[in-house]
Amino acid sequence: MGTGDFRPVYHPAGPDHALRVALQDLRTGRWLAMRNLLESTPDWALWTQRTQVLAAVAAGSDTVHAWLTEEPRSVAAAVMHARVAVERAVRAHREKRPRAQELWQVAWEGCRSAAYASPQDPVPWVCLLALSQLDEGQRLEEHRLPPPGPMLFPGPWGLLAEADARDPFNREAYHRMLQFVYARQSGGTLSEAVNFVQWAASSAPAGSPLHALPLYVRVERYRREHGNERALDLHWVTEDGERDARRALHLWFDAAAPSTRSLLDLNHLAHALWGSLRFADAAPVFRAMGPYYTSVPWSYRTRAPQDAGGAEDVFLRARGRCLASGHEPGTESHG
Length: 335
Known about the structure:
This is Immunity protein 49 of polymorphic toxin system. It comes from Streptomyces argenteolus. This protein is mainly alpha-helical. The protein is 61% helix and 0% strand. α9 (171-183) packs antiparallel against α10 and α15 packs across α16 (308-323). The longest helix has 20 residues, at 75-94.
């Protein structure tokens, strides 16, 4: 394998050690570290990311409710309360639980309260975008507004605009919009998704994570079509596949501050470059991950997408191949 004794680590906090400490406290029912972390978070991008990860863990307990009860005027607590409510509503909808509609209403009201409490914050609007995917038939008017450009679909464009106004090109906002596209009942969603991510990336500045968005649609296509490993390989060495990987490398990875790079984006980019046989280009992306990795998209290369061990094996094989490649960027080898 060429990986030596290296074993990758999966952790929802990735390299964010302060977030890791807050998660440890949160899992024991304590909220003080979470509050202190959010109070010291310096920008909207990191705030969005941290609140999302915290909510995924907090949704299984009443810890955030206890915090809000203790500090009812805390803006961060109000935002986290909305985050948790949305996480619960999305899970209930996905699992088709009987209380899904009720939880959706609770979450919607929580988002509106958080938007009022924190008017400059993009997260309440990102949360409303997350809820929009529950409205698969687009019954609500705010989920079927006219699109801002040709080849796009009616959707929650007003919610995206609100998030954009507070944090332009917010990564999660655009990913939530992409999930909305997938959830639509109108059909043709993959072509709509391609049009959306190309539109989003075309206006994003250098260093924006939106340049990695097209890589997600490529993986989604093969997830839906149950493409085998060989088909996925052939897919990535097409001209379009190589172009998407190359643009993400140069317009996002090379131009972004290392501390701002999402671990999930890094994994998608490394996967795309490896799949398009750009092994030397992928090497610095693998190195940028440090000891961390995410099972997606590597799990789609396995026979069973839930096979975490198989996903790790694919990751290690790809990492070993790319790190063993030549040092000249752009080196292509079919080994």
